[in-house]
Amino acid sequence: MKKSIFSTLALVSICAVMAILLALTNYFTAPIIKKNQDAAADAALLEVMPNGTGFEKMDTGSYTLPKTITEVYKAANGGYVFKLETAGYAPHFVIMCGVNADGTVSGAKCISSEETKGEEKTYGEKLAGKTIDDVLAVDTVSGTTMTTAAYKNAVKDALNAAIILGGGSVDIRTPEEILADNLTQALPAGEGQFTRLFIVEVIEGIDAVYTADNGAGSVYVMGEEFIGVPTGATSENETVAAAQAVLAASEVEKIDLTAYEGLPKRLKSASKTTTGNYILEVEGAGFGIMNTEEYIHSSGEYILVRVSITPEGKIIDTLTVYQAESENYGAACAKEEFYGQFDGKTEENYREIDAISGATYTTNGYLKAIENAFKAVKILKGGAEE
Fold it and tell me: In terms of domains, do 236 and 258 share one?
């Protein structure tokens, strides 16, 4: 019994001594460990702000910053480093960006991405030294439009955030939010719900027309000017009034495709306006049709493209009506940023567009649909297909 008690006391004593030793070790080593951890963190931050010192993570709960910003570090000698998450052709595009006290970019680096071209690895070098006024003017790289545009917009968010943290005021709304606010301000009765009108007539001086989903009227966009016109009213603006007249007089008649020979197989429908313009819907064989990679599921569905073309062969408007391409890659064909590139193009230059990065099948399928639209117009006009 005594031996058992002695053994227990010995074990407790050993444990107590070990605990004391561990506590002492932690007491002396914890500051060293923290210092090393801080040094490692500073090293990462120093990549985008080489002259920064004494970085401290900020609590930004009392500020309204761009949504892309996930972390903020303040340098003791002035300036900030921002961690941002955005999306290019794919989501989870993470960037570190340093902003000097004078409002210039000290450095920018992609630390994580699912982009396919690799341009994001070095693009930050082009943005060093830029200010809020010139960062968006940096050249976007052809073939990686969405990647490099997302990079520039994220860096602009960092520059805006630095202004806000410094006590300034800036507009941090996204382009989509700005558009929605402008439409609502121009026509409050539209209640914030608008759809872009597919244009089938040439209307001079008008960049776009949005119609209110509740039928309250339309908003005409002229550069940065938004002019709302209630249903049944005529605008006092001469350019808008002229556009209203053109659109009101426009009539569309469906074309019987069986009356023509040699039309492209993927032409699904065609109509013609009284002014002679053609409205076509053409299928394009994108990734879902052309892909042969076994490890990726193919949708087996075509991209459906709507395009309006003048009798002279110039595209008025383009729209992706339907697509089932790969999410974060080919699905970008449904964004106006892509299909809007074809507006104003002719058969001679319609291929001069930025392809969708990492989506060759989708891009080629879309181009083929546009090519078939031009061929169809020639045949519908009574001419021979070249």
Answer: no
Q: Rounded to whole angstroms, how far apart are CA atoms 255 and 248?
A: 21
Q: Which domain holds residue 150?
A: 56-165
Q: Give domain status of residue 347, yes or no.
A: yes
Handedness of CA 311, 312, 315, 320 (dihedral sign): positive
pLDDT for 11 beyond 90: no
User: Do the beta carbons of residue 143 and residue 171 sit within 8 Å?
Assistant: no
Give the count of domains, the chain.
3
Give the containing element (helix H, strand E) for 109: strand 105-112
Q: Say what the pLDDT of residue 294 is.
A: 46
Percent of the chain with pLDDT over 70: 85
Largest CA distance in the chain: 114
Quickly list DSSP for 63-88: S---TTEEEEEE-TTS-EEEEEEE-S
Which tens digit of pLDDT belongs to each residue from 338-373?
999 999 999 999 999 988 877 889 999 999 999 999
- Write down which residue in 165, 187, 212 finishes a domain: 165
- pLDDT, mean of residues 38-51: 76
Same domain for 206 and 302: no
Are 325 and 359 contained in the same domain?
yes
pLDDT in tens, 204-228: 999 999 999 999 999 999 999 999 9
The H or E element spanning position 93 is strand 93-99
- Cβ proximity of 40 and 126 under 8 Å: no
pTM of the predicted model as reported, rounded to 2 decimal places:
0.69
pLDDT surpassing 70 at residue 22: no
User: Does residue 47 lie in a domain region?
Assistant: no
The reply to whether 374 and 258 lie within a common domain is: yes
| Domain assignment of residue 161, yes or no | yes
CA distance 85 to 286: 29
Backbone angles phi, psi at 282, to 5 degrees: -130, 140
Amino acid at 345: K
Encoded tokens for 91: 């989501």
**Spatial distance between the Cα atoms of 61 and 75, rounded to a whole number of angstroms:** 18
In this structure, the answer to whether residues 277 and 334 fall within a common structural domain is: yes
